[in-house]
Amino acid sequence: MTTKTFSSMTPELLAATTVLAAQLLQSAPVVALHQAQAQLAADPAAQASLKRLARIQAGLRAPPAGTADLADQIEDLHRQQEQVNSNATIQAVALSQQAARASLGHVNRELSQILEFDFATYAKRPGCC
Amino acid sequence: MESTLENGLELAPPSVIRQAAGEVAAALVGQAVYQAFVKAADALDQDPEARRTLKAFQTRQQALAAGRPNPKLSRAEQADLEALRQAFMAVPAVAVYGAAESELKALCQAVADQLSQSLGIDFAGACRTGCC
Description:
Chain A is mostly helical.
């Protein structure tokens, strides 16, 4: 990730945010997620499986060449989804992502309770989808 | 999971995370931008012109939607509703609130960006549900 400056933040806010970021980096869910991501990065078979799924999905978004082709593509998609779903390395990333999101959700609730508005809603940049 | 990392650092327990989050929130509350937002929100809440124009807009909107499960507004109805919306937006207290809210959002985004950059996870995106 590129380094940004956060010029609108006072030194006090910047310091508190830096501490929170450091603590989160040492929290069990974030550590587990980073470990799972590193394992995925070191697993060529899992990466190939994900790439193949992405290719099939992209193919399905293109106009179909014919009904028979479409049926084959859908069958191919289901087969590949099953393969991805049964891959332990990929599933470990998915599960740890869920846990990390839940953990960050707790942090957001803590912030929001004090601020009296939903912090994540205010912090989300426009055009999220 | 072990309570220490491979590099010997201890894992941060949830209580420590909560405390650190509380300190970020307290620092945000101390910002002039946050105080200006609270003041603008209170002023908006108390402003009779803002209340009157908002009520006029909401009443008309509800009247147009009543008994029409999927209302398709005519051009005249759309123009009518837009005029009421503009009347609300033109109230000075509404403009002040809008500006204060934008400033506060920019500050919250700066905080979330710093967290996202450190963690490698989109903090605001990860916390929100119902989108993407």
